[in-house]
Design goal:
The complex is a heterodimer of chains A (257) and B (324). Chain A starts with a helix and ends with a helix. Chain A has one domain. With 257 residues, chain A is mainly alpha-helical. The radius of gyration of chain A is 19 Å and the shape is elongated. Chain A is 79% helix and 0% strand. Chain B has 324 residues and is an alpha/beta fold. Helices cover 38% and strands 27% of the residues of chain B. Chain B contains twelve helices and 14 strands. In chain B, a hairpin with a 2-residue loop joins strand 12 and strand 13. In chain B, helix 3 crosses helix 4. Chain B is elongated, with a radius of gyration of 24 Å. Chain B starts with 5 loop residues before the first strand and ends with a helix. The chains are: A mainly alpha (257), B alpha/beta (324). The interface between A and B is medium-sized, with 23 and 31 residues. The complex binds adenosine-5'-diphosphate and magnesium ion (MG). The site of magnesium ion (MG) has 5 residues of chain B, from helix 1.
């Protein structure tokens, strides 16, 4: 067990190093959320005037934009496995005694940390454009932890897909295919009470919606902690199940080798 | 045929890939500890598949294999502790530096601290990579990458090192350097399994070798014994004019130690036991039959001829067929 933890740490350090060596990549992943916040936020603010609890639509959008950015980034995670397969790096690790689980968790740790970093940067941009989060620091930290959980879940699915299909195209297409529907079937852009009933029902079971609604609590001076805890626990369960699935995918990979 | 002194025992390995390609069709061989073993064969013979099974990257459909005394199927974790592997496609991480690659590799074997640092420094020095150790690997030349690859295979001082076509794609200078390094490794007692499609490489480095063709071992032994088994040196005689084939054959059939006569155009090829001693008799037999000799070449048997004998075609023809 301790060996697996130490190995996960070393694998995560490797991935984080590669991540910080590409500041350009980090900047590129932030372009989209900035556009969402500034353009989308300004464009729809008049339409949304009466619908939200705070006085800024940008503030309302921020949790959803952070969530979407995390989904997009982690949805690509499986690409790295496909590239490593093609490079031979993955086999190089697999001939060592490294725990297979450590190869997965190392990457998940890196994904979780980098989406939290992205989330913090988006938060700073939102604050700079006038958004306010009266819920306080604690709920903000809980929200960011939940962002990390959804990134773990998504990165796990993406990793599993990369390992099983061994194709960059299928990782890309599934990432694109899943993220937007999940975002629109949640209260990312509009509150649930404005949705058609069927859509609101689906949103109730959508983990992305749980995340966004936990994030919305940061806008309220009265945080509904029982909602936060139950839905946070739900996100944790989803993340664990997905992570477990991705270790199974490793076995499939080795069978096909 | 088991025991302490065998680093590898492979028995009747078979593997068919999910796409229906039969890569191995009953492969058996063994490798004594502390020797360099060559797995020689043309592209597609099944060399990499054999290495993947022995390094626990994939499983055979049937057959057994033991590496460093451990069974690859029932105890892969133990096998992994004892082996180093340099795959055909490089396994280095281009986005990390040379030193980071080596240190991570060591860490995955549970090494760490000052001992690992010193050992990594030693390897960088030994492979002439000290000056570039802090550079990202994506800036390395092919030769430098390969050397890093080999150094990574050695980081935990494995008992058995697999090198899958280590010199393919290297320029002659880098190849010669790697040959020296492999020969030096063998002297330290490590067992080296080297796959190659270069006959010269197997001849130069391997203590024993198996020739693999279409998923089967067609010959197994030391390069010398395999060549000896061909019985004699090869003689090529070029005549002034194309001979009458039966006349030529008749002239040679009574000469002692001459066999495998092939007549084509102006050329006569044959194998001659103790070539240097018996070739003069062969020449005078031709002369007295009225066949005028323009030139003669006598050559020791080569692995190419061993392959020709066992696989029924020359190595180069197979290789070219693949490149086409
Ligand atoms: N992963 C794979 N899936 C399907 N076929 C494969 C795979 N790897 C190798 N093969 C096929 O198996 C045969 C043996 O390949 P390989 O072991 O790589 O030979 P070598 O290393 O001697 O060139 C070839 O016909 C090759 O095309
Ligand atoms: Mg090969």
């Amino acid at each position: 067990m301790t060996a697996a933890v130490i190995q996960s740490y070393h694998m995560a350090v490797r991935d984080l190093r590669a991540f910080v060596r590409q500041p350009f990549y980090l900047a590129a992943t932030l372009i989209q959320p900035v556009i969402w916040l500034l353009l989308f936020g300004k464009l729809f603010a008049p339409l949304m005037e009466d619908t939200h609890t705070t006085d800024s639509y940008i503030g309302f959008l921020t949790p959803g934009v952070i969530a979407m950015t995390a989904l997009f980034a982690s949805g690509w995670s499986g690409m790295v496995f496909v590239v490593e397969m093609e490079q031979g790096t993955l086999n190089r690790f697999l001939v060592t005694p490294v725990r297979r689980g450590a190869l997965i968790t190392g990457r998940l740790i890196q994904q979780a940390l980098s989406v939290v970093l992205q989330g913090l940067i988006i938060l700073v941009i939102a604050l700079a454009t006038g958004a306010r989060f009266p819920g306080g620091v604690l709920i903000m930290l809980v929200f960011l932890a939940c962002v990390a959980l959804i990134a773990v879940a998504f990165a796990s699915l993406s990793n599993a897909l990369g390992l099983v299909t061994r194709s960059q195209e299928s990782v890309i297409s599934i990432a694109q295919f899943l993220v937007l529907p999940l975002a629109f079937l949640s209260s990312t852009f509009v509150p649930r009470r404005l949705m058609p009933d069927w859509m609101s029902t689906i949103a109730g079971g959508n983990p992305v919606n749980w995340l966004v609604e936990i994030g919305r609590q940061t806008l309220d001076d009265h945080v509904d902690w029982s909602f936060v805890l139950t839905h946070g626990a739900g996100l944790l369960a989803v993340a664990l199940v997905c992570a477990w699935l991705s270790t199974l995918a490793f076995r499939v990979y080795q069978k096909q080798a | 045929m088991s025991g302490e002194n065998l680093a590898i025992e492979v028995s009747d390995l078979a593997k068919t890939y999910p796409n229906g390609v039969c890569a191995l069709d009953g492969v058996t061989f063994s490798v004594p500890s502390g020797t360099v073993f060559g797995l020689l064969g043309p592209n597609g013979a099944g060399k990499s598949t054999t290495v993947k099974i022995l390094t626990t990257l994939t499983r055979p459909d049937s057959g057994t294999a033991r590496v460093a005394g451990c069974d690859v199927l029932s105890d892969p974790a133990q096998v992994r502790r004892h082996i180093g592997c340099v795959a055909q496609s490089s396994g280095v991480d281009p986005a990390a530096t040379g030193r980071e690659n080596l240190v991570l590799q060591g860490r995955l074997y549970g090494l760490g601290g000052g001992g690992l640092r010193e050992h990594v420094d030693g390897l960088l020095e030994r492979f002439g990579l000290s000056d570039v150790a802090g550079r990202l690997v994506k800036t390395y030349s092919g030769g430098m990458r390969r050397k890093l690859d080999v150094a990574m295979g050695l980081v935990h001082q494995p008992r058995v090192l697999f090198l899958d076509e280590p010199t393919t794609g290297l320029d002659p200078e880098a190849r010669a350097e790697l040959w020296r390094e492999i020969a030096a490794m063998a002297a330290t007692g490590i067992t080296v399994v080297l796959t190659t499609h270069y006959l010269e490489e197997a001849d130069e480095l391997a203590g024993t070798l198996a020739i693999l063709d279409q998923g089967k071992v067609v010959a197994h032994g030391t390069p010398e014994s395999l060549k000896k088994a061909l019985h004699g040196d090869s003689v090529q005689v070029l005549l002034n004019e194309p001979p009458e084939e039966t006349a030529a054959r008749n002239a040679l059939s009574n000469v002692e130690g001459v066999h495998d006569i092939v007549v084509s155009g102006r050329e006569i090829g044959a194998r001659v036991d103790a070539g240097a001693d018996n070739a003069p008799a062969l020449l005078s037999a031709l002369e007295s039959a009225g066949l005028r000799v323009a030139s003669v070449t006598l050559s020791a048997p080569t692995l190419d001829e061993v392959y020709l004998r066992h696989a029924g075609r020359t190595f180069r023809s197979v290789q070219e067929g693949h490149i086409r």
